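Protein data:
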Amino acid sequence: MAYGQINADVIQSSVTGVSLGAGNATRFKNRIINGNMVIDQRNAGASVTQGTTGTQYCLDRWLILGTQASKFTVQQNAGSVTPPVGYSNYLGCTSSSAYSVTSTDYFGIQQRIEGFNTADLAWGTANAKTVTLSFQVYSSLTGTFGGVITNSAYNYSYPFTYTISSASTWTSISVTIAGPTTGTWIGATNGIGLVALFGIGVGSTYSGTAGSWSANTYFSATGATSVVGTSGATFYITGVQLEVGSSATGFEVVDCGTQLLMCQRYYEKLGWTQSEAPGSTSGYIGALLSLPTGVSSQFMGFTWQVTKRAIPTITTYGSIASGVETSGIAVDWYTGTTIGACTVQRGSVSNCNYIGTASPSSYGAMFRVVMSAEL
C-alpha cells in the first residue's frame, strides 16, 4: 500500500432491520429515553392516578396529562398481560370511568425530549430531517387512535393517526414524519426540544388534521378514539422509538444500568433501592457525626450519581410516623428517633450540601433524598 493511501472496508450489518451503512450504528439512535418502560424510580410499579398538573410523571421520563382529574390510572405492567416478544415491561393506562370528553378536554401520555438530544434534527430550517416514530401498542378498544409531535411551546404540531384492528393484541405501529422547515424549535439547550404525545381522549379544540404540520396547539388527530370514554378500557404501550429516517429500524436496546443513568439526569433518589418508591420506610443515607461541644451545626456533602439537566429541586426525607416519611428531618442512626432538621444549604447540578442543626446521640444521622430536574 502506497504512503498516503487509505483502504477502507464498508461494514454491513446482518442484524434484521439494521444497516450500519445507513447510519443506524450511532449510539442513541432512539431519542426517547426509557421507551421500553423498564425504569420506574418514583413508583416502583405502583399505580398512579392521573391529575390535572402538567408535570405529573409516572414511569421515568413519561408524563401524564388531563384537564379533568382521576379519569385514568397509569402503572408499569398494568393488567399483567404478556408483553410483546423482546420486551418485559410496558406502560399501561386504564380508564376509570366512561367520561364524555368535551371540546376543550385533553388526556394523554407524553415524553419531553431535551434540546441537546434533538438539535441535530435542524427542525425549523430548510435542512429539517425526517423522523420515524415506532411503538408497540395494545388496547381493549379498536379503531383509529391519535397523537402528535409538537414543539416546546405546544403551538406547532403534527397530528398523526394509527389503527388498532384487533382488541387486546399487541400491534406494531410506524409513523414517518417529514421534518418541519418552519415553526419555533429550541436548539442545543437543556430546554424542551420536542414532545411526543399519545392522546387517549382529546376534544375538538385540541384535535387537528392528521399528516401535516400546523401552527396550532393540538394533542391528537381529529376523529381519534377516546380511551377515557369507556369505563375500564385499557391502552398499553412499549418499544417507543423516535429516530432519524423514513423507516423504522429495530428497537435500540440499552442496558438497564445505562438507561437508569440516562433517567437520573432528570430524576434521582438516594436511600431507596430501585424496587422501593420514595415514601417507603427502608434504606437511608447520611453520616452527620455527633456535634462537638460548642458547635451548633455542621455540613455534609453529597455528589449525585449523574450530573443533572439543571439545578434540581431537592426533597429530604427522614423521620417516620405511622409508616409515613416526613420531609426535612434527620433521624438518629442508632435509635431511629427524630433528632432535628437536616436542610439543604446549597445545591448544584452535581452535588448538594446539607446543614445539620441537631446532634445524634450515637453514630450519626440518616435521611433520604429525592432530586428532580425534569423538563
